[in-house]
Amino acid sequence: MIPVGVFLSVVVAKLRGGKFDRLHDLGIKGLPWVWAALLLRALVGILARRSIDVPWLQIVAYLIFFYALIQNMSLPGLKLFIGGSALNFLAIAFNGGAMPVSPVAIAFAGLQQGDPMGTHCLLTPATRLWFLADVIPLRSPYFPLPQVISIGDIFIVVGIFYFIQRKMLATSVSCARQE
């Protein structure tokens, strides 16, 4: 959902008169921490495919990610992004380090139902905070890539959308006065 959200954000901003060159300096601090968190999350998935289950690494990845996000609270849309990330983190932390995903939503989205590994687990009656889990199905023709998302994912994408709109549509303000 996030790549589609970024793409649509850029397209909408461009249609509104936004400029691509305004995206050259996003003003994001702590990018090495963001990359470290993303690499840890990828590592969880890679290890899971090799039957090495380390979901606690996902919690560590989120803590590193939050460290980077807090440094950027003043950026437009980041509070929404952080809020969505926090909702996802709660679902993951309360469910053993994996994001629960609804088997009903998987089927409704038209996805192949298998046993999720690594960063996800199947939602069960024992799932805590199930309403924060991946329970919202997106499918064709309403969404280009069928998937199951969470309410946190929606907040994240809205935050990204707002951020890109503000960046691409920003105008340079000159305070110099001619006398």
Keywords:
single chain; 179 residues; mainly alpha; two-stranded parallel ribbon; two-stranded antiparallel ribbon; 6 helices; 50% helix; 7% strand; disordered C terminus
Topology readout:
Elements (H helix, E strand, L loop, with lengths): L1 H14 L15 H19 L6 H15 L7 H16 L5 E3 L1 H7 L10 E3 L13 E3 L8 E3 L1 H18 L11
Parallel strand pairs: 1-2
Antiparallel strand pairs: 3-4
Please give a structural write-up:
The structure is a single chain. The protein is mainly alpha-helical. It has one domain (29-163). It has six helices and four strands. The protein has helices at 2-15, 31-49, 56-70, 78-93, 103-109, 151-168, and strands at 99-101, 120-122, 136-138, 147-149. The strands form two sheets. The chain has a two-stranded parallel sheet with strand order 1-2. Strand 3 and strand 4 (147-149) form a beta hairpin. It is globular, with a radius of gyration of 19 Å.
Residue windows where pLDDT falls under 50 for at least 5 positions: 173-179
**Secondary structure: helix percent:** 40-55%
H/E element string?
HHHHEHEEEH
State which percent range the strand residues make up. 5-15%
Number of separate structural domains: 1
Largest sheet: 2 strands, parallel
Q: State the assembly state of the protein chains.
A: single chain
What's the N-to-C terminus distance? 52 Å
Q: Please count the beta strands (DSSP E, at least 2 residues each).
A: 4
3D shape: globular
Structural class, please? mainly alpha
Strand order of the largest sheet: 1-2
Cα-atom Rg, whole angstroms? 19 Å
> What is the tally of helical segments?
6
Mean pLDDT: 88
